[in-house]
Queue: 2 jobs
Job 1
Amino acid sequence: MFTVQVKRKTNSSVLRNIGAALTGPKTVKVGFPAGEADQDNINKAVWNEFGTRGGASGGGWGGPIPERPFMRNAIRENRGKYRDAMRSSAAKILTGKTGLRTVLSKLGITAQGDIQAEITSLQSPPNSPVTIAIKGSSNPLISSGEMRGAVTWKVNE
């Protein structure tokens, strides 16, 4: 999961004059926010994002799971897009044409789609032949699509 935080500089003359425009939520969390995803999907996400050693360390079919950083990849590949979206929204926020909650919600929806697209497209490292035989698919991050469907976002105060 990643978090975008809005920083408010209270010593800025611009912000002193329009402080009311910057009231509202401060962060949007994207991925598997607490209370928004069930533990099975959180486990699958963690095991795949960071990998496991297998066996008693958890994850998968008992063997090691290689690191498949789908969330980090999606965020890294789209960081500029998120920054540009926040920059282009700044004037609208400051002039009262939109609010922080709306902007952060749009950012959350966008990042959710980017993470889901990465889950669909990630192919490396590939599944082992044993895993392919068990789940009947060679896509490393999709078995039933449940984890991909559980990716979500949440605006926090």
Job 2
Amino acid sequence: MKKLFLPFIFFLFIFAYHCHSQNGNLDSLINIIKSEKPDTNKLKHLYQVSDESETLGSYEQGLLYGKKAIELANELLMRKENEKVVLLSKRYKARAYNNVGLIYFGQGNFSEAQKNQALSLQIRIEIDDKKGIASSYNNIGNIYFVQGNYSEAIKNYFTSLKTREFIGDKAGIATSYNNIGSVYRSQRNSSEALRYFKISLKIRNELGDVQAVADSYNNIGTIYNDLKEFSKALENYYKSLELRKEIGNKAGISNSYMNIGSTYAEQKKYADALANYLLSVGIDESIGNKAGLATTYNNIASILITQKKYSDANKYLIKGKSLSLEIGHKECLRDAYVELIRLDSATGDFKGAFESHKNFVLYNDSLDNEETRKNMIQNQMTYDFEKKEAVAEAEHKKELENQSVIAEEESRKQKIVLILVSCFLVLVVIFSVFIFRSLRITRKQKNIIELQKNLVEHQKEQVEYQKSMVEEHQKEIIDSITYARRIQQSLLPTDSYIEKNFIRLKRK
């Protein structure tokens, strides 16, 4: 046992380092609360301390501040100051009830967890907080799940899923897929469980939700462990463990160590298995996680029986069985009776083995029976049908909207055509007026041109007449001159005659 003690001390040192910043934030909030007056700001801070404490596994502190938040919310509601204060008071009161319910759930106090979740749901319905309503149904489903009431669990999970899909809450949808996958795993339907877990992981990776991604890796690891694919199981468990250490999630870290131990146990690596189981036990004891302790006690007992350490195994089984009965955890009780059958058979207590077998059959039948499977199938079918109906209704609505859009588009087109035709007609009228005016001007100009042409032609005729007169006159003058010339020529001697007579006279 000394070899196991040192790793546990080392783990506590590492865990304390990771949680330092978160504890610093809590201390700051607690100091602020001390000096605050009782108003909605103080109410908000009380809830935040409770919420952070629950995340870190500081359950006692979480319960203390959660209950203080509920008390202050009641006080503020009694004052009835104004609508805003009333609404905020109711909202944080519902959240505080939800958080207190989660803490009781973590402690394995399922009756108180159910009571507080119901109170939270009632307020959330009253103020129409759909996201909160979905969360409450989911948390109520978790309570039914650990109690082995799978039909009620999956009924609440699907109710939560439908609301989350309606409001588009992706983180919530991923959580619902994850939880539905857990129910399928409990019914040994590994293929459906793995399908739901992987869908959940994809959404959570897209959202960057570290804690949720860690939970998904853990759950995928459990499926691979069930399928005996141990390397894949450990790969996913260690991914989950590292992320849970990163955010300081005590309950998650404990769960990872327990699951890693279970995988090592399947491989018959008992020393490694026990080392991880004891790390898980140490954390669960510190945070009061009874359900986790009951499961791990059964697992430790199983290894001790294999190692023939019957006395030590019996001690762990008694503790595991006692815690399981206390919190009403049917799965843990069933598993405890399985190990008691092995222990009693190995020690020769056949009467005890027979009694344990009867109890095993009783709890196993209550967990895994035909009615439960029918209810699960019915819930799945109802969900699928309603989803298809919702899709069909959405498509019909979309079709009507499309038709309306088409009609509006047609009407718009007709209006555009009408406007264009009107504009065209106006343009035609304007153009016609323009053409008419142009024709009038052209006709007028043509008339003027015709008049001018006639005038020019008249003037031309006058000119031609005058020209003809001039030519006639010129002709008369020329004829007179010609006539005179002829007379002159007939009266006067010619040059040859004169020259001839001149020469004759000269001779004389």
